Structure formats: structure tokens, C-alpha cells
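Might you be able to review the protein record set out just below?
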Amino acid sequence: MLTPLDSVPIDSLTPLLKRYWGYEALLPNQAEAIACAMTGQDSLVILPTGGGKSLGYQLPAIAKDGMAIVVSPLLSLMQDQVQALVGNGIPAATLNSNLTSDERRQVVEQIRTGHLKLLYVSPERLAAPDIRSLLASTPLSFIAIDEAHCISQWGHEFRPDYRNLGQLREWFPDLSLHAFTATATDEVRADIIRALGLREPRVIVGDFDRPNLTYRVQQRRDLLAQIRSVLDRHPGEAGILYCIRRADVDSLCAALVKLGYRALPYHAGLGADERRTNQAAFSREETDLIVATVAFGMGIDRSNVRFVIHAGMPKSIENYQQEAGRAGRDRLAAECILFHSAQDAMTWRSMYKEATGEFERSAIAKIEEMSRFCRTLTCRHRFLVQYFGQAFPEAPCGACDVCLAEHASLPDATTVARKILSGVARVQERYGARHVAEVLKGAKSQKLLQAGHDRLSTYGLLAEHQLNDILDWIDQLIGHGHLVRAGDYPVLQLTPSGRTVMRGELDVVLTVPKAASAPRANRRTFEGAELSAGEEALFQHLRAWRRELAQERGVPPYLILGDVSLRELALTRPATVEALRGVRGIGEVKARDLGDRLLSALQAGAAEQGLALGAAPEAPSRTTPERPNATRETAFAAFAEGRSIAEVAAATGRSPGTIEGYLLDFIGHTGRTDPAPWLDADRYRAILETAESLQAERLKPIFEALHGEVPYGNIRLAMALRANQAKESVLDPLAPPR
């Protein structure tokens, strides 16, 4: 039976949140995840990258008695999280194979003395009998499994050693289990629950949309030039460039370095030491760009990646969501660009051509869906969100190439398509795409002339178009299934649908890129705060200061302070250590640790720009995203129609706790004062009378005075309605409830 989470006093954890992390409030869904850990209710938490998954187990770990175990797949990821926790004043450690014997003894002693609140371990270490024996004699609070999609054979990063975690229930029968991941389809979710043996788990699914990301998908033409155009939009900013093959990583990285870009390679073919060195250089901001295969990414905790480039199509939507999602984890604006060719899908399919099992058939289906994402001109945000089973409004998102109208339809596309298909037929389906394009263009290459193809009826049919455009349209026709590449030396061949088009029985849509260059990614923060030129310069000054301090301490810069904190510092420019505590991401420990040095850096940077300390306005509210949240809009419309929380939760696929948060926003936005249909009139009156008698504004005293029989959610709702009534009475004391 699911535990009623409204009975958990989440508000009582706010002082811990502020003290250790410097946050005033939790993000959507975090409260539910934390409540599950606090009550011992098994859970599966699916929050997109940047949604704050780690806080879902870190905050309850310090609030509960005992030590929490966190299972994580990568040593670098564990080390970064432990460093961040220790930097915030939280006792945490990791047991892994990289520790010296002395370091291991120290960690074991910390476990035995009850000093630690969080212990990070890999699946392999947790399976070791000596570790299990040690933990069996230690007071434990719960177990969290990070990157839980690794346990599913249907997941995009399946790891056999994760499958052994199915024995956790046998090893620790009295502990609750909490699985966390950023990406999981219904199939993967069911597999995680089954593999871990979760007991009636509460499944918490966040909003898969990432409104701070701008998605762009383009046909791959001159790849190096296309990549350079992106890099030049992001000078001095961090980015990841993904390639399908190792050879592409090496050649592309070498070309970029030759052109003067700071880039390093990363793939499984490199030695372990080189991979660690390059990853560390990226984490420590010693290089701007990593060129990598999909082997890179899961162990990266750097939050200020401003762009992700795919030089080829990923093999699934899950992979793309995970890889592109490494941009903008700090909730600031970021750009995701995918350059693709029809050849990419063929490359991925070739890896499964001999396979006939269910897993391989699933992989082929995912390749086809990813290919459809590339060639279909529908809103990218809507496509991704709907793939994961969530709703998205029909209105333009304003943050993808389609909704920004960066593509144009080719006039008379069907006629052009028929000419191309006829060109393939006239060369007897024995030549590749470039040769066919040259015939249609009317080129005079030696190979073409020797074959006598200058005498074909299709010669020069598309002479008025650029060769690269013809090649793009050939690629699009392959993507639409009207042409295929076949043979060891890939030649173009017509499909049945292609012959239908050629006969004029089926229309085709082809696109061309607009002449104007793509706009620069939005520079505003996700919360909407825009920096002036002087403030932007101060922000860069603070970044340089952070980098120097990080080098001095031997840690990645983002573990000192995140970009969100630095931008807020540049905007608000606090003048005292006490004022620093009001900045997002600066808790008591960081304010005490960085205080004087940070204020000196602020003062020096502000003086250079002629900015005064403590004179800037407060940072804008963090509750309103730059682009409206799709689910929030849907919920608002439903509330306006008088729908209940349960009805809206069912319609949107969100948890009641998330919808409750949207209802509070709706009430604050509209000024509603009538509790119906969300709160029974008698209960509403009882809450207000209790609050009045106690003269209380905080929720906990009211909850306790009502003997714990009224959920916290009801109390929050009543207090929000009362606040609107107070405002309304000032304006019009006789106004009826709304």
C-alpha cells in the first residue's frame, strides 16, 4: 500500500536545504522523492537531467538516522558527488578500487563509528562479501540506485553488473530501495521494478521537457564548417561533440585542434590513463571541447555545458535525450545541434543485420524512431516529450529549428523528387549518390563522360541547383524510404514507394535550409534574469576567479560554485558574508568557506566595470521559466474548468504532488479565493480557524494542532486561498469569492 506522502513534513527539511545547499525551495517532484525515502516507501524516480535527482536521496540521507548507501556505476561520478557533498559540509565517502589501503581503512573506520551519512559504492564493491558484512553491522537508512536504467536490458546503457543488484532485497531485506534515472520508457521502468524487486514502488515521473534547451536538426553537408559555425557561437564555453565511430572522433578532433580550438578526444580505444586525463581536463575547465563517442558522458557532473553537437544520428531517442541533456544542467540556456545523414541509420542497422532476437528487433525499431525524429519537421520538444508518453501543447515551443522556422519547403518538391528518381533509374541503379547528383547537375567529370551519362535524358535536369542541395534531397528521399543504398559500394536503388512517386502517384515534401544563419542560443537564465554588458563581464571575472581557486584546491570549478550562483552574484552583488547566504547555491558552509575571498573577487570585478556592491536589484523570481512549462499550462486550463487534482493528474500523467504544486501556482496567478472543488468547505474552515487561533503562518504547528489528520497539501492550499482573500479584502471588502 502506498504511503500518504502528504503526512511527511517536508517543510521541516527546508532549513537543511538552505544550510547545506543554499536553496530556498525544492524543484518539482523532488519533494515526493524525498518523502519516499523519509517514509521507507520504495520508489522509482525518473527526472530529466538537470531535474535534481541527487537531492532526492542526499537530503533525506542527512535528515534520517543511519547511513544511506548510494550505488553508482562510475568512479568519477562518485568522486565528484562526494567532493561536492564534503564541500557542503556533509560527511560522505566512497569505497572503490582506486583507494589506497590507508584511505580504505579510513573510510571503513568512518563507517564503523557512524560518522558518514552517505556511502557511494559500485555494484561490484557492494557484491563483495567483506563489504556486505561490514554494512550488515552498520545502522543504515536506505539504498539509492543511481543511473538505474543500467539495470535494464532494454535501457540504452545496460550493464550486466547492475543486474546483480536484484539481490539487494535479499542482502538488505529491511531497507527501502530507491531507483533514480533521467531516461526510461514504460518498458524500461517495468524492467527496473522487476529486476530490483521493488515493493509497491511509488513511480515519480518528472516533466521530460527541457525548456532551456534549443534543439536544431540539420542535414550533414560540410560537417567541419557546420561544427565551426556552432563553436563560434559559443566562444570560451563548454561543449561536447558526439561521433558514431572512434575514427571520426580522432580525425575531427585533430582537425579542430589544427584550427586552434581547445579540444580533446575520448573513446574506448584510448588508454584508461588518457581517458581519465582528458575527462579531468574537461571537468577542470582546462579544455572547452570534448570530441567523443557515446562512451563519454555518464560520469560527467559538469553543469555548465552550453552546447552539445551530434556529428551523426544517435541510435535511439533515449540515447539522444541522455546525451543532448548533458547541456544546460544548470537550467541556463543551452543549444543542442544534430547533423545527420541517411547513412547514419544504415550504419546503426548494419550492426544488427544478422540478429533475430527480441532485443535486436527492439533496437531496430528505436533506430527507425530516431530517424523519424531527424527527418520529420514537427516541434522537437513536442516529439521528445510525446515519445516518453507525456502531453505537449500545440503552440510553437520557440526553442527548436522547426518552431523558429529555420527550414523552408522546396517549391515543386514532387517534380524535383521525380527527376532525382528518374536519374537513378536512367543509370540503371548501378551508381552512388554523388554520381547521380552530378548527372542531374550536368557536371563534366571524367567518370561521367566515360560512362556516356552526359547523353542521358536526365543529364542537367537540375542544373539550376547546387550539387550539395541535390545530395541533400537524395538523402531526404532515402530517409522517406523512396530510395535505398545497397551493396558493398553503396549504389542507389528505387523502392516500391519511389517508383510510385516517379509515376506521379504520390507527393513528396523536401526542405531547404534558410539562407539566414541560425540565431545564437538565448543568453538569459532559465529563471529569466538577463545580465547587462558590465554584469556579463563581472560574471566572466568570477568564472576566472573560480577556476584559479579550483586549481589551488585540486577540484573541478563547478564544485566551488555553479554558473547559476555566479550569475546571481554578478546581478545582485552582495556586500557582506551574511548577504552571500541569500544567493542560490551558497549555504552556510560555502558562505563561511568562501566568504572573504569571494567578496574580494566581487569587489575587484565590480570596480573594473564601475558597478557598486549591494546596489543591484534582487534577483528575479526563480519560479517562472523563460518558456512556459507545457504541463503547467495544461493544468492551469483544467483548473479553470474546475477539474480536481486527481483528474488533472490522470490527464497529464503527472503525480498528484506535482499537480498540487501547479494548483498553488494557479491560485497565486489568478487570485482565486474559493476552495471548491479542491478543498472541502468544512476542512477549509477548520484549517483557517486553527491558523487563526495559533496565529501561525508555518504549516507544521497547524498540522500538529489538527492531530496530523489533515494533509500538508490541504494546509498549503488553504493558506494560499486565505492570502488571496486578504489581498482582495483590501481592494474590495464586499467582493464575492472567486
Summary: The chain is about 45% helix and 10% strand. The chain has five domains: 5-205, 213-397, 409-513, 533-609, 630-731. The longest strand covers residues 213-219.
